[in-house]
Amino acid sequence: MPSPIPVTRLLPKDINPFLDIGTCSSPLAKYSFGTSLQVPVQRFHGKVASRLWSTVIHWKELISVQPVGSGGFGSVYKAEYFGETVALKKVKKCTKNKLASRQSFWAELNAGHLRHRNIVRVIAATTCVPPGFGDEGSIGTILMEFVGDRNLHQILYACVEPLGEDKWHKYATDIAHGLRFIHSHSVVHLDIKPANVLVSREDVCKIADFGCSLKLDYKCEFSAISPHLSHVGGTYTHRAPELLKGEELTPKADIFSFGITWWQLITREQPYTGDRQHVLYAVVAHNLRPSVRDQDHPVFGSEQGRQVRTLLGRCWSGEGLCRPSAQELLLHLEQLRPQT
Question: What pTM was estimated for this model as a whole?
Fold first, then answer.
């Protein structure tokens, strides 16, 4: 669970990055940018020694900052850092819900220690901003790898180029690989949707925006949803029924969201129309799901289309136990790989 406790209460005093905000000096070693910023194992121990992201941002090395976009809890910028292009995310203070914005910042770091081809890599994160950087309204700042200027939402709804079967199959497989990896580390994303999947210049999908994520208790397969976690749930069109009902949380919530996202990849349509509250009620009470009828989408009329339709039905089942795991999902996707 993301913690609203200030990082000064979480880190040992000898690596507290806020003791000298003028110089932002750091005991963390800087390795080649192609790997990560790491803590020297010979000096520190335990969780600190295994941290792969820096607790200090070297502000003087951050140049050419340009705005890219903004969301509910923050803004994203493109910048140069030690000569490399990075993404800079500033999590802003939300006057209406300060707890939710604070939780969003700490949730972003649930996957900060993870390294995978299909996950956006965290480089550094801090709540310390030296004077003169104009970040008074920010809770914290996160540096991440810069994937590119495109996300799946833009590719689906703002591009005219065709999205063939081989392409949407590859994108779906990339997402499933990312989900298998984070789930194996007890992290649940909780906001899988096209806008939160970035696409690199090499056409590789990377899961981004962990602001709604949770770290599950390693002793359990599930975790009860605390009423105090006001940021939990993600986008309503992709939200699993158990989240809407306040039931136990498992990685299968991400599989439900994957199913909706995969349907969007195939159809390039929005999953629902109508009033938000009506959709939320219908998803839980009447098992409302996007249409997979042949007459609405001929792609589902082929033999392979019928197999896809069956797998989609399992992914967005109302019962989490009936949904495949990310590992099982990958096996099914391999069987559905287009013949070349």
Answer: 0.82
Is 95 in the same domain as 216? no
pLDDT for 8 beyond 80 = no
- In the chain, how many domains are there? 2
Helix axes 303-315, 326-335, angle to 10 degrees: 180
| 166 a catalytic residue | no
198, containing H or E segment: strand 197-199
* pLDDT bucket at 300, cuts 50 / 70 / 90: very high
Half-sphere exposure (CA, 13 Å, Cβ side) for 196? Answer: 26
Q: Which of 135, 149, 166, 191 is catalytic?
A: 191
pLDDT in tens, 33-77: 333 333 222 233 334 334 578 888 898 899 988 988 876 667 899
Structure tokens at 312: 């989609």
List, in order, residues 6 or more apart from 336 with CB less than 8 Å away.
Answer: 169, 304, 307, 308, 311
Query: What domain range includes position 123?
Result: 7-145
